[in-house]
């Protein structure tokens, strides 16, 4: 079927096909519809602000007129977006189509129609677009991405506290190392995520409305005495809730976008790291995965319960990071006062953040299935008595016994260790009896330092 109708099964992107339901929250915000919606909002707020500027040619609008205009934004529907798209077939210009659509919607309203030429007054299309993109990102960040990331952080915080005191053998360079706790290892990731989340939330979303090359040329040609910079700032910050950028070329330089996308990439990288670690812990048997009736792990091996959620998370975070990195590297680069390469790239913001959202969803599904296998953790620790060489040689150092490190290296390195061997070594040391007793009571599972306390503290 070479010309099949578009359906989730024929979608080119899996975000609009297989995974459509999981990223649906982003669709009205970062789609073509979302861009048109924000363009209408920006045009309307600019128009209303012009009516309040004190120009004799454009008296202040009545409350009824303002209500009608803002209702176009509040009640913007897919049919409205399609109507704009139909106008674009003639204009071959997407922003001009929005201007014409607004003029058609106010036709017949005497007060508004009379002022119709103040729609899009002194604006270049990029004044509308850059502000719309900032509004789109604001909604996506605040209403979808951060709340979903907060769910991940909340889930992992709860697990960090739940497993705070469950001892676990560490592996540095893949080799047995000083024990930790399961909760502390999760808390480490939570701490990183909280810092990364703060960086996302702290990015100021910038916008400009200063004309074709950023100098208010057209504005001043019409009203040379007016404070256009102050006017523009008031619209951007007061009416739209963004941050005003006073220095731009035709386009807002997109540095804030690069900062934002880099911040999302940092979260993706942290969660790739964690997804791989959990995958490994499942492989070692430290975690089991809850089974679901009817699910199949392998088409040929009936016993398998594969860690697919963590694998899917890793893959989707990788896709998100690749796209976000390209956006961050490309968008701040524009030839002279502008070129159009940013336009087509910006249409992929939803794709990039969509894969990140899909990664969060996959990771949460995986975390919800985890069950701790305490027996496997205990057995792993009991096979690693050599890790107590560290505390023993450290206490020996305290009491200035000769060559403590070298003695323990010779005794333990490359040799299987048991509780009896380690305790026999301690018994023969010239240490105060209370120190011997303390070391003799120590096990790999009790040698976890502050791990439990640090894990419990992460939720504070």
TrEMBL record:
GO terms for biological process: 'de novo' AMP biosynthetic process; 'de novo' IMP biosynthetic process. Signal peptide: none annotated. The keyword Lyase applies. Residues 17-315 form the Fumarate lyase N-terminal domain. It is an enzyme of class 4 (lyase). Keywords: Lyase, Purine biosynthesis. Its EC number is 4.3.2.2. GO terms for cellular component: cytosol. It catalyses: N(6)-(1,2-dicarboxyethyl)-AMP = fumarate + AMP; (2S)-2-[5-amino-1-(5-phospho-beta-D-ribosyl)imidazole-4-carboxamido]succinate = 5-amino-1-(5-phospho-beta-D-ribosyl)imidazole-4-carboxamide + fumarate. Residues 334-448 form the Adenylosuccinate lyase PurB C-terminal domain. This is Adenylosuccinate lyase. It comes from Sphaerotilus montanus. The lineage of its organism: Bacteria, Pseudomonadati, Pseudomonadota, Betaproteobacteria, Burkholderiales.
